Amino acid sequence: MKNAFDLTGQRALITGGGTGLGLGMAKCLVACGAEVVLVGRRENALQEAVEGIGERASYRVCDVTELERIPALVEGVETEIGPVDTLINNAGVHLKKDASEISDTAFQNVMQTHVNAGFALSREFGKRMMERGTGNIIFTASMASLFGIPLVAAYSAAKTAHLGLVRALAADFSPRGVRINAIAPGWIHSEMMHKALDADPKRKEKILTRTPLGVFGDPEDIGWAAAYLASPAAKFITGVCLPVDGGASVGF
Hints:
There is one protein chain. The chain has helices at residues 20-31, 43-53, 70-80, 104-132, 153-173, 191-197, 201-209, 219-230; strands at residues 11-15, 35-40, 57-61, 86-89, 135-140, 178-185, 241-244. By secondary structure, it is of the alpha/beta class. It has a single domain (11-244), classed as Rossmann fold. A seven-stranded parallel sheet has the order 3-2-1-4-5-6-7, with helices on both faces. The chain starts with 10 loop residues before the first strand and ends in an 8-residue tail after the last strand. It comes from Pelagicoccus albus. Pfam families: adh_short_C2. Residues 10-190 form the Ketoreductase domain.
């Protein structure tokens, strides 16, 4: 049988691709044969990531919250590099604060990054994918998409919105050949996670005790899931959210 996990000849664009989960996904997709374009705000981080990955990686500096820049980003990438087969909406910001203390501006900043930018990118790449009759869009969801977590109301609202977008976009785009899915990472070793947990040992202990595997995950755990969803092996999967969480979403 042909290797259904082979991504040779495919291109993926990953927002927030210079560090953390985005970088882990990029490495795994490249290992499966894909080319990757990393998008982010910090050129130094993007350069370092591309140098570490090798010749099948490139980058574009873009703040995706500036929605007016997205059409030009999409046009530039597809003209200069080639058609994008997989879009991974991974760019994100975290806000740890009691809900009663979150300002309207702070709430909207989180929504702008996760939801508005993710939708705009999906719309622009989705148009092109549907014209070609094939493509994949993957959202990085969260455990906060699945259950209530204290101190992350804005983040939870944004990540829950991702699931609604996955279902609605699948209904709109999949009849024209584009699959839409999400990955819900559990607690994964990353700069964002350690920033949230290292100064909060009780929260850290609570997470580990409700995670059946009893450990935090690695970025590559999310990367291999993304590679699967982007591959022909997942050709009959659309509109779903795949938890990659060590069992946290079913733990007690």
